[in-house]
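This section describes the prediction task in plain terms. A model, or a person checking by hand, is given the sequence of a single protein chain and must write out its three-dimensional structure as a string of C-alpha coordinates. No templates, partner chains or ligands are provided. The sample shown here is typical of the held-out split.
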Amino acid sequence: MTQNSNHLRRKAAGEGHWNSTRRLRVAVDSNLNPYDLDLDDFDVANPEIHRLNLAELYLRRLREEAPVHYCKKSQYGPYWSVTKYSDIMQVDKDHQAFSSSYEFGGVSITGTPNSGSEIPNFISMDPPKHDQQRKAVAPGLSPVRLADLETLIRGRVIEILDSLPRDKEFDWVDSVAVELTGRMLATILGVPQEDRGLLIGWSNAISNADDPDYVSSSGGFYQTLAELGEYIEPIWETKRDGATTSDMDLLALLANSQEGSNMPIKEVLGNVVLLLVGGNDTTRNSISGGLLALNQFPSEYDKLIENPDLISSMVPEIIRWQTPLAHMRRTATRDYRLRDQTIRKGDMVIMWYLSGNRDTEAIENPDQFIIDRRRPREHLSFGFGLHRCLGNRLAEMQLRVLWEEIVHRCPRIKVTGEAVRASSPLFRAIQTMPVMMDIA
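The expected answer:
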Protein backbone atom coordinates (compact mmCIF):
# COMPACT_ATOMS: atom_id res chain seq x y z
CA MET A 1 0.00 0.00 0.00
CA THR A 2 2.88 2.29 -0.84
CA GLN A 3 1.37 5.58 -2.03
CA ASN A 4 -1.69 5.58 0.19
CA SER A 5 0.26 4.29 3.17
CA ASN A 6 2.87 7.02 2.80
CA HIS A 7 0.10 9.61 2.62
CA LEU A 8 -1.46 8.28 5.82
CA ARG A 9 1.88 8.11 7.57
CA ARG A 10 2.49 11.78 6.68
CA LYS A 11 -0.87 12.51 8.27
CA ALA A 12 0.21 10.63 11.38
CA ALA A 13 3.47 12.54 11.49
CA GLY A 14 1.65 15.84 11.50
CA GLU A 15 1.19 16.96 7.88
CA GLY A 16 -2.39 18.18 7.71
CA HIS A 17 -2.91 16.54 11.08
CA TRP A 18 -6.26 16.63 12.79
CA ASN A 19 -6.54 19.70 14.95
CA SER A 20 -5.96 18.37 18.46
CA THR A 21 -8.21 21.03 20.02
CA ARG A 22 -11.17 19.27 18.45
CA ARG A 23 -10.55 16.26 20.65
CA LEU A 24 -10.45 18.15 23.91
CA ARG A 25 -13.00 16.94 26.42
CA VAL A 26 -15.83 19.31 27.24
CA ALA A 27 -16.45 18.83 30.93
CA VAL A 28 -19.88 17.66 32.09
CA ASP A 29 -21.18 17.95 35.62
CA SER A 30 -22.71 14.52 36.29
CA ASN A 31 -24.80 16.01 39.12
CA LEU A 32 -26.41 18.62 36.87
CA ASN A 33 -30.01 17.98 35.85
CA PRO A 34 -30.34 18.31 32.04
CA TYR A 35 -33.79 19.82 32.61
CA ASP A 36 -32.09 22.79 34.28
CA LEU A 37 -30.07 23.64 31.16
CA ASP A 38 -31.02 26.06 28.42
CA LEU A 39 -31.99 24.03 25.35
CA ASP A 40 -29.95 26.41 23.20
CA ASP A 41 -26.86 25.05 24.97
CA PHE A 42 -27.78 21.40 24.55
CA ASP A 43 -25.02 19.33 22.91
CA VAL A 44 -25.95 15.69 23.38
CA ALA A 45 -23.08 14.65 21.09
CA ASN A 46 -20.54 15.64 23.75
CA PRO A 47 -18.59 12.38 24.30
CA GLU A 48 -18.45 12.98 28.06
CA ILE A 49 -22.25 12.71 28.30
CA HIS A 50 -21.98 9.22 26.85
CA ARG A 51 -18.97 8.17 28.94
CA LEU A 52 -20.92 9.12 32.06
CA ASN A 53 -24.00 7.24 30.78
CA LEU A 54 -26.15 10.38 30.90
CA ALA A 55 -27.24 10.43 27.26
CA GLU A 56 -30.61 8.76 27.86
CA LEU A 57 -31.68 11.57 30.21
CA TYR A 58 -30.53 14.31 27.83
CA LEU A 59 -32.28 12.63 24.90
CA ARG A 60 -35.48 12.21 26.93
CA ARG A 61 -35.72 15.96 27.35
CA LEU A 62 -35.20 16.50 23.64
CA ARG A 63 -37.98 14.02 22.82
CA GLU A 64 -40.31 15.85 25.17
CA GLU A 65 -39.48 19.47 24.35
CA ALA A 66 -37.49 19.68 21.10
CA PRO A 67 -37.71 16.44 19.10
CA VAL A 68 -36.00 18.13 16.14
CA HIS A 69 -33.29 20.18 17.82
CA TYR A 70 -30.53 22.37 16.40
CA CYS A 71 -27.19 22.50 18.18
CA LYS A 72 -25.38 25.62 17.02
CA LYS A 73 -21.99 24.84 18.52
CA SER A 74 -20.20 21.57 19.24
CA GLN A 75 -16.76 20.06 18.76
CA TYR A 76 -18.16 18.55 15.54
CA GLY A 77 -19.82 21.71 14.24
CA PRO A 78 -23.55 22.52 14.16
CA TYR A 79 -26.03 19.65 13.77
CA TRP A 80 -29.67 18.67 14.06
CA SER A 81 -30.79 15.99 16.52
CA VAL A 82 -33.77 13.83 15.52
CA THR A 83 -34.98 11.94 18.58
CA LYS A 84 -38.50 10.54 17.96
CA TYR A 85 -38.94 7.00 16.63
CA SER A 86 -41.22 7.96 13.72
CA ASP A 87 -39.05 10.92 12.67
CA ILE A 88 -35.91 8.77 12.71
CA MET A 89 -37.61 6.23 10.45
CA GLN A 90 -38.70 9.02 8.10
CA VAL A 91 -35.16 10.36 7.77
CA ASP A 92 -33.54 6.92 7.56
CA LYS A 93 -35.79 5.78 4.71
CA ASP A 94 -35.43 8.93 2.60
CA HIS A 95 -31.95 8.51 1.12
CA GLN A 96 -32.70 11.08 -1.58
CA ALA A 97 -33.32 13.91 0.88
CA PHE A 98 -30.74 12.72 3.42
CA SER A 99 -27.45 11.51 1.99
CA SER A 100 -25.01 9.06 3.55
CA SER A 101 -22.23 9.87 1.09
CA TYR A 102 -18.70 10.30 2.35
CA GLU A 103 -18.52 13.30 0.02
CA PHE A 104 -20.77 15.11 2.52
CA GLY A 105 -19.15 13.67 5.66
CA GLY A 106 -20.43 10.11 5.84
CA VAL A 107 -22.62 8.42 8.44
CA SER A 108 -21.12 9.48 11.78
CA ILE A 109 -20.64 12.75 13.60
CA THR A 110 -17.38 11.36 15.02
CA GLY A 111 -13.95 10.76 13.51
CA THR A 112 -11.47 13.14 11.95
CA PRO A 113 -12.54 15.97 9.65
CA ASN A 114 -11.19 14.04 6.65
CA SER A 115 -12.09 10.48 7.68
CA GLY A 116 -14.96 10.24 5.20
CA SER A 117 -12.67 10.83 2.22
CA GLU A 118 -9.78 8.84 3.70
CA ILE A 119 -11.82 5.68 4.22
CA PRO A 120 -14.90 5.65 1.95
CA ASN A 121 -17.03 2.51 2.26
CA PHE A 122 -20.39 1.31 1.05
CA ILE A 123 -22.34 2.39 4.13
CA SER A 124 -21.16 5.95 3.42
CA MET A 125 -22.34 5.84 -0.19
CA ASP A 126 -25.64 6.47 -1.91
CA PRO A 127 -27.17 4.33 -4.67
CA PRO A 128 -26.20 2.96 -7.09
CA LYS A 129 -22.65 2.44 -5.79
CA HIS A 130 -23.85 1.51 -2.32
CA ASP A 131 -26.17 -1.17 -3.67
CA GLN A 132 -23.49 -2.71 -5.89
CA GLN A 133 -20.89 -3.08 -3.15
CA ARG A 134 -23.39 -4.26 -0.54
CA LYS A 135 -24.70 -6.89 -2.97
CA ALA A 136 -21.17 -8.19 -3.54
CA VAL A 137 -20.61 -9.12 0.13
CA ALA A 138 -24.21 -10.07 1.03
CA PRO A 139 -23.77 -13.82 0.24
CA GLY A 140 -21.20 -14.03 3.04
CA LEU A 141 -23.91 -13.13 5.57
CA SER A 142 -26.85 -14.98 4.02
CA PRO A 143 -29.05 -17.37 6.05
CA VAL A 144 -27.43 -20.34 4.28
CA ARG A 145 -23.93 -19.12 5.13
CA LEU A 146 -24.90 -18.38 8.73
CA ALA A 147 -26.33 -21.87 9.13
CA ASP A 148 -22.90 -23.20 8.15
CA LEU A 149 -21.24 -20.87 10.68
CA GLU A 150 -23.47 -21.75 13.64
CA THR A 151 -21.63 -24.96 14.48
CA LEU A 152 -18.32 -23.08 14.37
CA ILE A 153 -19.68 -20.33 16.61
CA ARG A 154 -21.08 -22.81 19.12
CA GLY A 155 -17.76 -24.64 19.35
CA ARG A 156 -15.95 -21.40 20.03
CA VAL A 157 -18.51 -20.30 22.61
CA ILE A 158 -18.15 -23.60 24.46
CA GLU A 159 -14.36 -23.33 24.43
CA ILE A 160 -14.44 -19.74 25.72
CA LEU A 161 -16.99 -20.39 28.47
CA ASP A 162 -15.28 -23.56 29.68
CA SER A 163 -11.99 -21.67 30.04
CA LEU A 164 -13.42 -19.01 32.35
CA PRO A 165 -12.37 -18.98 36.03
CA ARG A 166 -15.03 -20.30 38.41
CA ASP A 167 -13.63 -18.93 41.64
CA LYS A 168 -12.43 -15.40 40.96
CA GLU A 169 -13.38 -12.11 39.36
CA PHE A 170 -12.53 -11.51 35.70
CA ASP A 171 -13.26 -8.96 32.95
CA TRP A 172 -16.27 -10.11 30.91
CA VAL A 173 -15.44 -7.76 28.03
CA ASP A 174 -11.92 -9.02 27.45
CA SER A 175 -12.50 -12.68 28.30
CA VAL A 176 -15.80 -13.27 26.49
CA ALA A 177 -17.12 -10.39 24.36
CA VAL A 178 -13.84 -9.48 22.67
CA GLU A 179 -12.64 -13.07 22.39
CA LEU A 180 -15.77 -14.35 20.65
CA THR A 181 -16.22 -11.42 18.27
CA GLY A 182 -12.50 -11.34 17.47
CA ARG A 183 -12.57 -14.96 16.37
CA MET A 184 -15.63 -14.36 14.21
CA LEU A 185 -14.11 -11.22 12.75
CA ALA A 186 -11.09 -13.13 11.48
CA THR A 187 -13.40 -15.79 10.01
CA ILE A 188 -15.72 -13.50 8.10
CA LEU A 189 -12.81 -11.41 6.78
CA GLY A 190 -10.82 -14.51 5.83
CA VAL A 191 -7.61 -13.65 7.70
CA PRO A 192 -5.55 -15.89 10.02
CA GLN A 193 -6.99 -16.44 13.49
CA GLU A 194 -3.63 -15.62 15.05
CA ASP A 195 -4.03 -12.07 13.73
CA ARG A 196 -7.34 -11.40 15.46
CA GLY A 197 -5.61 -9.41 18.19
CA LEU A 198 -4.32 -7.02 15.52
CA LEU A 199 -7.83 -6.63 14.11
CA ILE A 200 -9.28 -5.87 17.54
CA GLY A 201 -6.53 -3.35 18.26
CA TRP A 202 -7.10 -1.48 15.01
CA SER A 203 -10.85 -1.55 15.49
CA ASN A 204 -10.48 -0.18 19.02
CA ALA A 205 -8.25 2.66 17.84
CA ILE A 206 -10.65 3.67 15.08
CA SER A 207 -13.73 3.37 17.32
CA ASN A 208 -12.12 5.53 20.01
CA ALA A 209 -10.82 8.21 17.65
CA ASP A 210 -12.56 10.90 19.71
CA ASP A 211 -11.07 9.86 23.04
CA PRO A 212 -7.91 11.94 23.65
CA ASP A 213 -6.56 9.41 26.16
CA TYR A 214 -7.00 6.47 23.81
CA VAL A 215 -5.71 8.28 20.73
CA SER A 216 -2.55 9.44 22.46
CA SER A 217 -1.77 5.89 23.57
CA SER A 218 -2.59 4.17 20.26
CA GLY A 219 -0.60 6.38 17.89
CA GLY A 220 -3.56 8.14 16.36
CA PHE A 221 -6.14 7.68 13.65
CA TYR A 222 -3.84 7.95 10.62
CA GLN A 223 -1.16 5.74 12.14
CA THR A 224 -3.83 3.07 12.64
CA LEU A 225 -5.05 3.37 9.05
CA ALA A 226 -1.49 3.09 7.74
CA GLU A 227 -0.82 -0.09 9.73
CA LEU A 228 -4.14 -1.63 8.74
CA GLY A 229 -3.56 -0.75 5.09
CA GLU A 230 -0.13 -2.35 5.02
CA TYR A 231 -1.61 -5.50 6.54
CA ILE A 232 -4.66 -5.71 4.26
CA GLU A 233 -3.20 -4.86 0.86
CA PRO A 234 -1.25 -8.12 0.28
CA ILE A 235 -4.21 -10.15 1.59
CA TRP A 236 -6.51 -8.28 -0.80
CA GLU A 237 -4.21 -8.88 -3.76
CA THR A 238 -3.99 -12.59 -2.95
CA LYS A 239 -7.76 -12.91 -2.74
CA ARG A 240 -8.30 -10.97 -5.94
CA ASP A 241 -5.79 -13.10 -7.83
CA GLY A 242 -6.46 -16.51 -6.34
CA ALA A 243 -9.81 -16.75 -4.56
CA THR A 244 -12.36 -19.23 -5.88
CA THR A 245 -16.13 -19.01 -6.06
CA SER A 246 -16.29 -21.26 -2.98
CA ASP A 247 -14.51 -18.67 -0.82
CA MET A 248 -17.27 -17.05 1.23
CA ASP A 249 -15.32 -14.64 3.40
CA LEU A 250 -16.29 -11.03 2.79
CA LEU A 251 -12.94 -9.88 1.43
CA ALA A 252 -12.88 -12.69 -1.13
CA LEU A 253 -16.45 -11.98 -2.19
CA LEU A 254 -15.69 -8.29 -2.65
CA ALA A 255 -12.35 -8.91 -4.38
CA ASN A 256 -13.95 -11.24 -6.93
CA SER A 257 -16.93 -9.04 -7.66
CA GLN A 258 -17.22 -6.69 -10.60
CA GLU A 259 -17.07 -3.77 -8.18
CA GLY A 260 -13.95 -5.09 -6.47
CA SER A 261 -11.90 -5.77 -9.59
CA ASN A 262 -10.91 -2.11 -10.02
CA MET A 263 -11.62 -0.81 -6.53
CA PRO A 264 -9.14 1.86 -5.33
CA ILE A 265 -7.09 0.63 -2.40
CA LYS A 266 -8.38 3.39 -0.11
CA GLU A 267 -11.91 2.16 -0.81
CA VAL A 268 -10.80 -1.39 0.02
CA LEU A 269 -9.40 -0.05 3.29
CA GLY A 270 -12.63 1.81 3.99
CA ASN A 271 -14.73 -1.32 3.55
CA VAL A 272 -12.37 -3.29 5.77
CA VAL A 273 -12.76 -0.60 8.46
CA LEU A 274 -16.54 -0.83 8.08
CA LEU A 275 -16.50 -4.62 8.43
CA LEU A 276 -14.05 -4.42 11.33
CA VAL A 277 -16.09 -1.96 13.33
CA GLY A 278 -19.45 -3.44 12.34
CA GLY A 279 -18.35 -6.98 13.18
CA ASN A 280 -16.53 -6.09 16.37
CA ASP A 281 -17.92 -3.15 18.31
CA THR A 282 -21.63 -3.65 17.84
CA THR A 283 -21.84 -7.36 18.73
CA ARG A 284 -19.32 -7.30 21.53
CA ASN A 285 -21.08 -4.39 23.22
CA SER A 286 -24.41 -6.18 22.97
CA ILE A 287 -22.79 -9.22 24.59
CA SER A 288 -21.65 -7.06 27.51
CA GLY A 289 -24.75 -4.87 27.59
CA GLY A 290 -27.04 -7.88 27.77
CA LEU A 291 -25.33 -9.29 30.84
CA LEU A 292 -25.34 -5.87 32.49
CA ALA A 293 -29.08 -5.48 31.79
CA LEU A 294 -29.86 -8.87 33.32
CA ASN A 295 -28.00 -7.81 36.47
CA GLN A 296 -29.82 -4.48 36.58
CA PHE A 297 -33.16 -6.28 36.20
CA PRO A 298 -32.71 -9.45 38.31
CA SER A 299 -36.35 -10.50 37.90
CA GLU A 300 -35.69 -10.83 34.17
CA TYR A 301 -32.63 -12.97 34.95
CA ASP A 302 -34.94 -15.17 37.02
CA LYS A 303 -37.26 -15.54 34.03
CA LEU A 304 -34.35 -16.59 31.83
CA ILE A 305 -33.13 -19.20 34.29
CA GLU A 306 -36.63 -20.60 34.69
CA ASN A 307 -37.37 -20.59 30.95
CA PRO A 308 -34.35 -20.61 28.59
CA ASP A 309 -36.74 -20.63 25.62
CA LEU A 310 -37.05 -16.88 26.22
CA ILE A 311 -33.60 -16.42 24.68
CA SER A 312 -35.24 -16.00 21.28
CA SER A 313 -37.07 -12.86 22.42
CA MET A 314 -34.33 -11.75 24.80
CA VAL A 315 -31.76 -11.34 22.01
CA PRO A 316 -33.56 -8.53 20.13
CA GLU A 317 -34.48 -6.95 23.47
CA ILE A 318 -30.76 -6.86 24.36
CA ILE A 319 -30.01 -5.17 21.04
CA ARG A 320 -32.77 -2.61 21.61
CA TRP A 321 -31.74 -1.98 25.20
CA GLN A 322 -28.04 -1.63 24.46
CA THR A 323 -28.44 0.16 21.09
CA PRO A 324 -24.78 -0.49 20.23
CA LEU A 325 -24.75 2.36 17.68
CA ALA A 326 -26.22 5.37 19.44
CA HIS A 327 -26.61 7.38 16.25
CA MET A 328 -26.18 7.58 12.50
CA ARG A 329 -25.57 10.75 10.53
CA ARG A 330 -27.06 12.05 7.30
CA THR A 331 -26.59 15.29 5.31
CA ALA A 332 -29.61 17.12 3.91
CA THR A 333 -29.51 17.36 0.11
CA ARG A 334 -32.28 19.95 0.02
CA ASP A 335 -34.32 22.08 2.39
CA TYR A 336 -36.61 19.78 4.37
CA ARG A 337 -39.44 20.48 6.82
CA LEU A 338 -39.57 18.11 9.78
CA ARG A 339 -42.16 18.83 12.46
CA ASP A 340 -41.92 22.60 12.97
CA GLN A 341 -38.28 22.94 11.90
CA THR A 342 -36.67 23.65 8.55
CA ILE A 343 -33.50 21.67 7.94
CA ARG A 344 -31.41 23.47 5.32
CA LYS A 345 -29.54 21.89 2.44
CA GLY A 346 -26.09 20.85 3.61
CA ASP A 347 -27.05 20.60 7.30
CA MET A 348 -25.78 17.69 9.38
CA VAL A 349 -28.62 15.54 10.73
CA ILE A 350 -28.13 13.03 13.57
CA MET A 351 -30.64 10.22 14.00
CA TRP A 352 -30.41 9.20 17.64
CA TYR A 353 -31.28 5.49 17.54
CA LEU A 354 -30.76 5.36 21.29
CA SER A 355 -33.50 7.93 21.73
CA GLY A 356 -35.92 6.25 19.33
CA ASN A 357 -35.49 3.00 21.24
CA ARG A 358 -36.69 4.81 24.39
CA ASP A 359 -39.67 6.56 22.77
CA THR A 360 -42.87 5.80 24.70
CA GLU A 361 -44.99 6.60 21.65
CA ALA A 362 -43.43 3.67 19.77
CA ILE A 363 -42.35 1.17 22.44
CA GLU A 364 -44.27 0.15 25.52
CA ASN A 365 -42.34 0.64 28.78
CA PRO A 366 -39.12 1.42 26.85
CA ASP A 367 -37.07 2.10 29.98
CA GLN A 368 -37.66 -1.45 31.19
CA PHE A 369 -35.60 -4.43 30.08
CA ILE A 370 -38.21 -7.11 29.34
CA ILE A 371 -36.97 -10.39 27.91
CA ASP A 372 -40.45 -11.63 26.99
CA ARG A 373 -41.50 -8.38 25.30
CA ARG A 374 -44.41 -8.96 22.89
CA ARG A 375 -42.81 -7.35 19.83
CA PRO A 376 -39.09 -7.27 20.62
CA ARG A 377 -37.92 -6.67 17.06
CA GLU A 378 -39.58 -3.28 16.70
CA HIS A 379 -36.40 -1.39 17.50
CA LEU A 380 -34.14 0.99 15.58
CA SER A 381 -30.76 -0.51 16.40
CA PHE A 382 -30.24 -1.99 12.92
CA GLY A 383 -31.53 1.07 11.08
CA PHE A 384 -34.11 1.16 8.30
CA GLY A 385 -34.14 1.43 4.55
CA LEU A 386 -31.27 0.60 2.23
CA HIS A 387 -28.66 1.02 4.98
CA ARG A 388 -30.23 -1.50 7.36
CA CYS A 389 -27.43 -3.43 9.07
CA LEU A 390 -26.13 -6.16 6.78
CA GLY A 391 -24.79 -8.27 9.66
CA ASN A 392 -27.89 -8.21 11.87
CA ARG A 393 -28.51 -11.98 11.57
CA LEU A 394 -24.90 -12.78 12.48
CA ALA A 395 -25.09 -10.51 15.54
CA GLU A 396 -28.32 -12.13 16.71
CA MET A 397 -26.98 -15.62 16.14
CA GLN A 398 -23.83 -15.00 18.19
CA LEU A 399 -25.91 -13.65 21.07
CA ARG A 400 -28.39 -16.52 20.87
CA VAL A 401 -25.73 -19.23 20.82
CA LEU A 402 -23.79 -17.58 23.63
CA TRP A 403 -26.80 -17.42 25.95
CA GLU A 404 -27.93 -20.94 25.06
CA GLU A 405 -24.56 -22.21 26.25
CA ILE A 406 -24.38 -19.92 29.29
CA VAL A 407 -27.64 -21.17 30.79
CA HIS A 408 -26.35 -24.76 30.59
CA ARG A 409 -23.26 -23.94 32.60
CA CYS A 410 -23.96 -21.37 35.26
CA PRO A 411 -27.07 -20.31 37.18
CA ARG A 412 -26.04 -16.68 37.15
CA ILE A 413 -23.15 -14.42 36.22
CA LYS A 414 -22.84 -11.48 38.59
CA VAL A 415 -21.52 -8.07 37.64
CA THR A 416 -19.28 -7.18 40.57
CA GLY A 417 -18.19 -3.64 39.79
CA GLU A 418 -18.71 -0.61 37.61
CA ALA A 419 -18.95 -1.00 33.85
CA VAL A 420 -16.49 1.46 32.27
CA ARG A 421 -17.95 3.10 29.18
CA ALA A 422 -16.27 4.64 26.16
CA SER A 423 -16.04 8.36 25.52
CA SER A 424 -18.01 8.18 22.27
CA PRO A 425 -21.36 9.51 21.04
CA LEU A 426 -21.39 6.80 18.33
CA PHE A 427 -20.56 3.50 20.02
CA ARG A 428 -22.33 2.56 23.24
CA ALA A 429 -19.21 0.70 24.17
CA ILE A 430 -18.47 -1.02 27.45
CA GLN A 431 -14.70 -1.19 27.79
CA THR A 432 -14.41 -3.24 30.97
CA MET A 433 -16.89 -4.98 33.26
CA PRO A 434 -15.83 -7.17 36.21
CA VAL A 435 -17.91 -10.30 36.84
CA MET A 436 -17.92 -13.58 38.75
CA MET A 437 -19.54 -16.89 37.90
CA ASP A 438 -22.14 -17.89 40.49
CA ILE A 439 -21.82 -21.66 40.55
CA ALA A 440 -23.21 -22.27 44.05
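For orientation: The chain has one domain: 2-16+62-438.
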